[in-house]
Amino acid sequence: MRVNLTREKLAKGETAIGCALQVYRSPEIARAFAAAGFDYVFIDLEHGSFNLETAHDMIIAANGSGITPIVRVAELLYSLVARLLDSGAQGIILPRVEDPRLLEEALSWLRFPPQGKRGFGVNASMIGYETRGFTEIIEHQNRNTLSVVQFETQTAIDRADELLSVKGMDIAMVGPADLSISLGIPGQFEHPLLISTIEGLIEKCNRHGVVPGIQMRTVAGAKAWIARGMRFVGAGGEHGLLLEKAKEAVAQLRG
Question: Of the CATH numbers 3.20.20.60, 3.40.1260.20, 1.20.1730.10, 3.40.50.300, which one belongs to the domain with range 5-254?
């Protein structure tokens, strides 16, 4: 059965880097990102237009090439979380979290009993067509599934200690765009208020034993937050990387 390489890297105190899939409906991009050296691919079902079948293909491609597939669901629904995990996702990102009680329930869906409430609907492809017993599968999946919780509002920041105390959270991932809007400084990613707010969350994450993370729109922005202590860091999306490289190529050719 597949080991979650991103989880192992984080457990060693290292930094994991990834990139989002949001626009192009191609599993090949996951393979390309694996070849490039990214640790994880962030398959976006909140702002991306992918259906579950496309996500499944991306997950299979990622697993087959050694990059960790982590999927953001559009809302906190067991039916979404369970089907994506059964497709082979090695992590789930829960968006717009503010209520500790709802968070506790949602986190329980990511792991089998006794750690959680996930239903046992394992298909052969999820475990690489290996013959394994229930106990072995349960222990392996519980250990290798990453839970990522997004902090995107002032309310979530105000309740950070309470939210970070909920059992089962592995990573607290800042959504800087929505957080900047909530703070009244939309899109001002270098504003002192946004920076100090996020730095305060990093400190709380470290106190609670939760990995601090962030999804930035640019490589430069992601690199800056690695320097400030973020350890689960996304740098833009596949569409942005392609456009940036295409512009660079055109500029060189026309120059």
Answer: 3.20.20.60
